[in-house]
Amino acid sequence: MNIVDFLKERILFLILSLAVLMFSSLLLIYLKVDLYAIIFIALLNLSSLLIYHLYDFFNKKKYYDEVICNLEALDKKYLISDVIEEGSFLESKLIYHIINEVTKSMKDDISELKINNREYREYIELWVHEIKTPISSCKLLIENNKSDLTDSINEEVIKVENYIEQALFYARSNTLEKDYIIKELNLKSVVNKVIRKNSKILIQERIKIETKDLEKTIYTDSKWIEFILNQVLSNSIKYIDNSKSENKIKFYTRDIGENIVLYIEDTGIGITEKDVIKVFEKGYTGENGRRYSKSTGMGLYLCKKLTSKLGLGVNLESKVNKGTKVAIIFPINKYFIEMQ
Protein backbone atom coordinates (compact mmCIF):
# COMPACT_ATOMS: atom_id res chain seq x y z
CA MET A 1 0.00 0.00 0.00
CA ASN A 2 1.42 3.39 -1.01
CA ILE A 3 0.32 7.00 -0.54
CA VAL A 4 -0.49 7.52 -4.24
CA ASP A 5 -2.98 4.63 -4.35
CA PHE A 6 -4.44 5.78 -1.05
CA LEU A 7 -5.04 9.31 -2.36
CA LYS A 8 -6.44 8.04 -5.69
CA GLU A 9 -9.06 6.08 -3.77
CA ARG A 10 -10.08 9.22 -1.83
CA ILE A 11 -9.76 11.81 -4.61
CA LEU A 12 -13.49 12.53 -4.76
CA PHE A 13 -13.71 13.02 -1.00
CA LEU A 14 -10.68 15.36 -1.05
CA ILE A 15 -12.09 17.44 -3.91
CA LEU A 16 -15.45 17.81 -2.15
CA SER A 17 -13.70 18.74 1.12
CA LEU A 18 -11.63 21.43 -0.61
CA ALA A 19 -14.72 22.71 -2.47
CA VAL A 20 -16.65 23.01 0.80
CA LEU A 21 -13.68 24.82 2.41
CA MET A 22 -13.46 27.32 -0.48
CA PHE A 23 -17.21 27.91 -0.40
CA SER A 24 -17.10 28.49 3.38
CA SER A 25 -14.19 30.91 3.01
CA LEU A 26 -16.05 32.90 0.30
CA LEU A 27 -19.16 32.97 2.47
CA LEU A 28 -17.15 34.33 5.41
CA ILE A 29 -15.58 36.99 3.16
CA TYR A 30 -19.07 37.99 1.95
CA LEU A 31 -20.17 38.29 5.58
CA LYS A 32 -17.17 40.57 6.12
CA VAL A 33 -15.48 38.36 8.70
CA ASP A 34 -11.94 39.38 9.58
CA LEU A 35 -9.44 38.06 6.98
CA TYR A 36 -7.11 36.64 9.64
CA ALA A 37 -9.98 34.72 11.15
CA ILE A 38 -10.88 33.27 7.72
CA ILE A 39 -7.25 32.21 7.13
CA PHE A 40 -7.07 30.68 10.61
CA ILE A 41 -10.30 28.70 10.05
CA ALA A 42 -9.10 27.51 6.61
CA LEU A 43 -5.72 26.40 7.96
CA LEU A 44 -7.38 24.68 10.91
CA ASN A 45 -9.67 22.75 8.56
CA LEU A 46 -6.80 21.83 6.21
CA SER A 47 -4.65 20.69 9.15
CA SER A 48 -7.47 18.56 10.55
CA LEU A 49 -8.08 17.04 7.11
CA LEU A 50 -4.38 16.30 6.61
CA ILE A 51 -3.89 14.81 10.10
CA TYR A 52 -6.96 12.58 9.73
CA HIS A 53 -5.90 11.19 6.35
CA LEU A 54 -2.26 10.70 7.38
CA TYR A 55 -3.35 8.82 10.50
CA ASP A 56 -5.78 6.72 8.46
CA PHE A 57 -3.09 5.98 5.85
CA PHE A 58 -0.41 4.85 8.33
CA ASN A 59 -2.89 2.85 10.40
CA LYS A 60 -4.12 0.92 7.34
CA LYS A 61 -0.66 0.63 5.82
CA LYS A 62 0.67 -0.97 9.01
CA TYR A 63 -2.19 -3.51 9.04
CA TYR A 64 -2.06 -4.42 5.34
CA ASP A 65 1.75 -4.64 5.30
CA GLU A 66 1.59 -7.04 8.24
CA VAL A 67 -1.02 -9.18 6.44
CA ILE A 68 1.05 -9.31 3.24
CA CYS A 69 4.25 -10.07 5.18
CA ASN A 70 2.55 -12.96 7.01
CA LEU A 71 1.08 -14.25 3.75
CA GLU A 72 4.44 -14.27 1.99
CA ALA A 73 6.04 -16.11 4.93
CA LEU A 74 3.52 -18.96 4.73
CA ASP A 75 4.13 -22.05 2.61
CA LYS A 76 0.43 -22.85 2.73
CA LYS A 77 -1.30 -19.55 1.98
CA TYR A 78 -4.71 -20.76 3.13
CA LEU A 79 -3.47 -20.69 6.75
CA ILE A 80 -3.43 -16.87 6.67
CA SER A 81 -6.48 -16.74 8.95
CA ASP A 82 -4.45 -18.38 11.72
CA VAL A 83 -1.77 -15.68 11.76
CA ILE A 84 -3.62 -12.42 11.12
CA GLU A 85 -5.46 -10.38 13.72
CA GLU A 86 -8.52 -8.18 13.54
CA GLY A 87 -7.61 -4.54 12.87
CA SER A 88 -8.96 -1.39 14.54
CA PHE A 89 -10.79 0.00 11.48
CA LEU A 90 -13.99 -1.21 9.82
CA GLU A 91 -12.41 -2.57 6.61
CA SER A 92 -9.96 -4.73 8.57
CA LYS A 93 -12.81 -6.17 10.62
CA LEU A 94 -14.74 -7.05 7.46
CA ILE A 95 -11.64 -8.56 5.81
CA TYR A 96 -10.84 -10.57 8.94
CA HIS A 97 -14.41 -11.89 9.09
CA ILE A 98 -14.47 -12.80 5.37
CA ILE A 99 -11.09 -14.57 5.48
CA ASN A 100 -12.12 -16.56 8.56
CA GLU A 101 -15.43 -17.61 7.04
CA VAL A 102 -13.81 -18.62 3.73
CA THR A 103 -11.03 -20.52 5.53
CA LYS A 104 -13.52 -22.32 7.77
CA SER A 105 -15.56 -23.38 4.76
CA MET A 106 -12.42 -24.57 2.96
CA LYS A 107 -11.21 -26.52 6.01
CA ASP A 108 -14.61 -28.21 6.27
CA ASP A 109 -14.38 -29.23 2.60
CA ILE A 110 -10.80 -30.47 3.05
CA SER A 111 -11.80 -32.51 6.10
CA GLU A 112 -14.67 -34.07 4.16
CA LEU A 113 -12.36 -34.82 1.23
CA LYS A 114 -9.78 -36.42 3.55
CA ILE A 115 -12.47 -38.61 5.09
CA ASN A 116 -13.70 -39.65 1.65
CA ASN A 117 -10.15 -40.39 0.49
CA ARG A 118 -9.41 -42.43 3.59
CA GLU A 119 -12.64 -44.41 3.16
CA TYR A 120 -11.81 -44.98 -0.52
CA ARG A 121 -8.28 -46.18 0.34
CA GLU A 122 -9.61 -48.47 3.07
CA TYR A 123 -12.16 -49.90 0.63
CA ILE A 124 -9.47 -50.53 -2.02
CA GLU A 125 -7.23 -52.23 0.55
CA LEU A 126 -10.13 -54.39 1.75
CA TRP A 127 -11.11 -55.21 -1.84
CA VAL A 128 -7.54 -56.22 -2.70
CA HIS A 129 -7.36 -58.39 0.42
CA GLU A 130 -10.65 -60.11 -0.44
CA ILE A 131 -9.88 -60.66 -4.12
CA LYS A 132 -6.60 -62.38 -3.30
CA THR A 133 -8.60 -65.42 -2.13
CA PRO A 134 -10.25 -66.24 -5.50
CA ILE A 135 -6.96 -65.49 -7.28
CA SER A 136 -5.15 -67.97 -5.04
CA SER A 137 -7.90 -70.51 -5.74
CA CYS A 138 -7.45 -69.97 -9.49
CA LYS A 139 -3.70 -70.53 -9.17
CA LEU A 140 -4.27 -73.72 -7.20
CA LEU A 141 -6.70 -75.03 -9.84
CA ILE A 142 -4.18 -74.19 -12.57
CA GLU A 143 -1.39 -76.01 -10.72
CA ASN A 144 -3.57 -79.12 -10.36
CA ASN A 145 -4.77 -79.07 -13.97
CA LYS A 146 -1.72 -78.43 -16.10
CA SER A 147 -2.41 -77.91 -19.80
CA ASP A 148 -1.83 -75.37 -22.55
CA LEU A 149 -5.19 -73.82 -21.69
CA THR A 150 -4.45 -73.42 -18.00
CA ASP A 151 -1.03 -71.97 -18.84
CA SER A 152 -2.77 -69.30 -20.90
CA ILE A 153 -5.23 -68.70 -18.07
CA ASN A 154 -2.30 -68.42 -15.64
CA GLU A 155 -0.80 -65.63 -17.78
CA GLU A 156 -4.02 -63.66 -17.51
CA VAL A 157 -4.27 -64.33 -13.77
CA ILE A 158 -0.74 -62.95 -13.31
CA LYS A 159 -1.74 -59.83 -15.25
CA VAL A 160 -4.83 -59.41 -13.07
CA GLU A 161 -2.67 -59.82 -9.96
CA ASN A 162 -0.25 -57.14 -11.19
CA TYR A 163 -3.07 -54.71 -11.98
CA ILE A 164 -4.59 -55.30 -8.54
CA GLU A 165 -1.24 -54.63 -6.88
CA GLN A 166 -0.89 -51.47 -8.97
CA ALA A 167 -4.33 -50.27 -7.84
CA LEU A 168 -3.42 -50.90 -4.20
CA PHE A 169 -0.14 -49.00 -4.39
CA TYR A 170 -1.78 -46.16 -6.31
CA ALA A 171 -4.40 -45.82 -3.55
CA ARG A 172 -1.63 -45.71 -0.94
CA SER A 173 0.75 -43.46 -2.86
CA ASN A 174 -0.73 -40.19 -1.55
CA THR A 175 -0.21 -41.29 2.06
CA LEU A 176 3.20 -42.87 1.55
CA GLU A 177 4.78 -40.85 4.36
CA LYS A 178 2.59 -42.75 6.86
CA ASP A 179 3.21 -46.18 5.37
CA TYR A 180 6.92 -46.80 4.93
CA ILE A 181 9.94 -47.73 7.00
CA ILE A 182 13.43 -46.85 5.79
CA LYS A 183 15.86 -49.60 6.70
CA GLU A 184 19.06 -51.23 5.52
CA LEU A 185 18.48 -53.69 2.67
CA ASN A 186 20.63 -55.98 0.57
CA LEU A 187 19.98 -54.97 -3.04
CA LYS A 188 20.72 -58.45 -4.39
CA SER A 189 18.09 -60.00 -2.11
CA VAL A 190 15.50 -57.44 -3.19
CA VAL A 191 16.21 -58.00 -6.90
CA ASN A 192 16.18 -61.80 -6.53
CA LYS A 193 12.83 -61.64 -4.77
CA VAL A 194 11.34 -59.68 -7.68
CA ILE A 195 12.88 -62.08 -10.22
CA ARG A 196 11.46 -65.09 -8.39
CA LYS A 197 8.04 -63.47 -8.39
CA ASN A 198 8.17 -63.27 -12.19
CA SER A 199 10.07 -66.55 -12.74
CA LYS A 200 7.24 -68.44 -14.44
CA ILE A 201 6.59 -65.85 -17.11
CA LEU A 202 10.34 -65.31 -17.59
CA ILE A 203 10.80 -69.02 -18.25
CA GLN A 204 7.73 -69.14 -20.45
CA GLU A 205 8.93 -66.21 -22.56
CA ARG A 206 12.49 -67.64 -22.60
CA ILE A 207 13.98 -64.43 -21.22
CA LYS A 208 17.48 -64.72 -19.83
CA ILE A 209 18.28 -62.85 -16.61
CA GLU A 210 21.76 -61.54 -15.87
CA THR A 211 22.83 -59.97 -12.58
CA LYS A 212 26.11 -58.26 -11.78
CA ASP A 213 27.52 -56.23 -8.86
CA LEU A 214 24.33 -56.39 -6.81
CA GLU A 215 26.02 -56.97 -3.46
CA LYS A 216 25.19 -53.45 -2.35
CA THR A 217 23.57 -52.01 0.75
CA ILE A 218 20.69 -49.62 0.14
CA TYR A 219 18.43 -47.71 2.52
CA THR A 220 14.75 -47.63 1.61
CA ASP A 221 11.41 -49.35 2.24
CA SER A 222 11.42 -52.99 1.12
CA LYS A 223 7.74 -53.18 0.16
CA TRP A 224 7.76 -50.06 -2.00
CA ILE A 225 11.09 -50.73 -3.74
CA GLU A 226 9.96 -54.27 -4.60
CA PHE A 227 6.82 -52.81 -6.16
CA ILE A 228 8.88 -50.31 -8.17
CA LEU A 229 11.29 -52.98 -9.45
CA ASN A 230 8.39 -55.28 -10.26
CA GLN A 231 6.76 -52.56 -12.38
CA VAL A 232 9.98 -52.01 -14.32
CA LEU A 233 10.53 -55.74 -14.83
CA SER A 234 6.90 -56.26 -15.88
CA ASN A 235 7.33 -53.56 -18.53
CA SER A 236 10.51 -55.23 -19.83
CA ILE A 237 8.68 -58.55 -20.09
CA LYS A 238 5.63 -56.94 -21.67
CA TYR A 239 7.65 -55.30 -24.46
CA ILE A 240 10.06 -58.10 -25.36
CA ASP A 241 11.09 -58.39 -29.00
CA ASN A 242 9.68 -61.72 -30.21
CA SER A 243 11.63 -61.41 -33.49
CA LYS A 244 14.92 -61.93 -31.62
CA SER A 245 16.29 -65.41 -30.96
CA GLU A 246 17.28 -64.42 -27.43
CA ASN A 247 15.88 -61.81 -25.09
CA LYS A 248 17.79 -60.65 -22.05
CA ILE A 249 17.20 -58.49 -19.00
CA LYS A 250 20.24 -57.34 -17.03
CA PHE A 251 20.42 -56.04 -13.48
CA TYR A 252 23.67 -54.30 -12.53
CA THR A 253 24.93 -51.39 -10.45
CA ARG A 254 27.42 -48.56 -10.62
CA ASP A 255 28.68 -46.24 -7.90
CA ILE A 256 28.31 -42.68 -9.16
CA GLY A 257 29.36 -39.97 -6.73
CA GLU A 258 27.30 -40.29 -3.56
CA ASN A 259 24.81 -42.65 -5.21
CA ILE A 260 24.37 -46.34 -5.96
CA VAL A 261 22.64 -46.63 -9.34
CA LEU A 262 20.74 -49.80 -10.20
CA TYR A 263 20.25 -50.39 -13.92
CA ILE A 264 17.56 -52.64 -15.39
CA GLU A 265 18.41 -53.06 -19.06
CA ASP A 266 16.45 -55.13 -21.58
CA THR A 267 16.73 -56.03 -25.26
CA GLY A 268 13.09 -55.30 -26.05
CA ILE A 269 11.41 -53.29 -28.78
CA GLY A 270 12.49 -49.98 -27.26
CA ILE A 271 10.67 -46.66 -27.06
CA THR A 272 10.54 -43.90 -29.64
CA GLU A 273 12.38 -40.66 -28.85
CA LYS A 274 9.18 -38.61 -28.64
CA ASP A 275 7.70 -41.07 -26.13
CA VAL A 276 10.75 -41.31 -23.86
CA ILE A 277 10.26 -37.81 -22.45
CA LYS A 278 6.63 -38.60 -21.56
CA VAL A 279 6.82 -42.16 -20.19
CA PHE A 280 6.53 -41.00 -16.56
CA GLU A 281 3.38 -38.98 -17.21
CA LYS A 282 0.15 -40.28 -15.70
CA GLY A 283 -1.85 -42.41 -18.15
CA TYR A 284 0.61 -41.95 -21.02
CA THR A 285 0.83 -45.22 -23.02
CA GLY A 286 2.77 -44.07 -26.06
CA GLU A 287 3.06 -45.79 -29.41
CA ASN A 288 4.13 -49.15 -27.93
CA GLY A 289 1.28 -49.21 -25.45
CA ARG A 290 -1.25 -48.75 -28.23
CA ARG A 291 0.39 -51.07 -30.75
CA TYR A 292 1.75 -54.01 -28.77
CA SER A 293 -0.13 -54.18 -25.49
CA LYS A 294 -3.13 -52.79 -23.69
CA SER A 295 -1.21 -50.54 -21.31
CA THR A 296 -2.69 -48.39 -18.53
CA GLY A 297 0.17 -45.91 -18.54
CA MET A 298 0.24 -46.08 -14.72
CA GLY A 299 3.25 -48.32 -14.01
CA LEU A 300 6.08 -45.89 -14.73
CA TYR A 301 4.02 -42.98 -13.42
CA LEU A 302 3.78 -44.74 -10.06
CA CYS A 303 7.51 -45.57 -10.16
CA LYS A 304 8.32 -41.88 -10.60
CA LYS A 305 5.90 -40.79 -7.89
CA LEU A 306 7.05 -43.36 -5.34
CA THR A 307 10.79 -42.94 -5.95
CA SER A 308 10.36 -39.19 -5.50
CA LYS A 309 8.57 -39.66 -2.16
CA LEU A 310 11.22 -42.15 -1.02
CA GLY A 311 14.02 -39.70 -1.84
CA LEU A 312 15.25 -41.83 -4.76
CA GLY A 313 15.67 -40.96 -8.43
CA VAL A 314 14.60 -42.70 -11.62
CA ASN A 315 15.65 -42.17 -15.24
CA LEU A 316 14.93 -43.97 -18.49
CA GLU A 317 16.85 -44.29 -21.76
CA SER A 318 15.70 -46.19 -24.81
CA LYS A 319 16.32 -46.81 -28.49
CA VAL A 320 13.88 -48.38 -30.91
CA ASN A 321 14.71 -52.05 -31.65
CA LYS A 322 17.67 -51.86 -29.25
CA GLY A 323 16.04 -51.93 -25.82
CA THR A 324 15.36 -49.85 -22.74
CA LYS A 325 17.48 -49.02 -19.70
CA VAL A 326 15.95 -47.80 -16.46
CA ALA A 327 18.18 -46.35 -13.75
CA ILE A 328 17.07 -46.20 -10.10
CA ILE A 329 19.27 -43.95 -8.00
CA PHE A 330 19.83 -44.74 -4.32
CA PRO A 331 21.62 -42.00 -2.34
CA ILE A 332 24.22 -43.37 0.06
CA ASN A 333 22.80 -42.70 3.52
CA LYS A 334 25.84 -41.63 5.54
CA TYR A 335 23.77 -41.25 8.71
CA PHE A 336 22.78 -44.93 8.68
CA ILE A 337 26.35 -45.96 7.85
CA GLU A 338 27.75 -43.95 10.78
CA MET A 339 25.19 -45.52 13.11
CA GLN A 340 26.41 -49.06 12.28
From TrEMBL:
Residues 126-334 form the Histidine kinase domain. SUPFAM superfamilies: ATPase domain of HSP90 chaperone/DNA topoisomerase II/histidine kinase, Homodimeric domain of signal transducing histidine kinase. It is a multi-pass membrane protein. Its main location: membrane. The chain crosses the membrane at residues 12-30, 36-55. GO terms for biological process: cellular response to phosphate starvation. It is an enzyme of class 2 (transferase). It catalyses: ATP + protein L-histidine = ADP + protein N-phospho-L-histidine. InterPro entries: BphY/WalK/GraS-like, HATPase_C_sf, HATPase_dom, His_kinase_dom, HisK_dim/P_sf, Sig_transdc_His_kin-like_C. One of its GO terms (cellular component) is plasma membrane. Its EC number is 2.7.13.3. GO terms for molecular function: phosphoprotein phosphatase activity; phosphorelay sensor kinase activity. It is found in: Cell membrane. Keywords: Cell membrane, Kinase, Membrane, Transferase, Transmembrane, Transmembrane helix, Two-component regulatory system. It comes from the Bacteria. PANTHER family: HISTIDINE KINASE (PTHR45453:SF2), PHOSPHATE REGULON SENSOR PROTEIN PHOR (PTHR45453). This is histidine kinase. It comes from Clostridium tertium. The gene is graS_1.
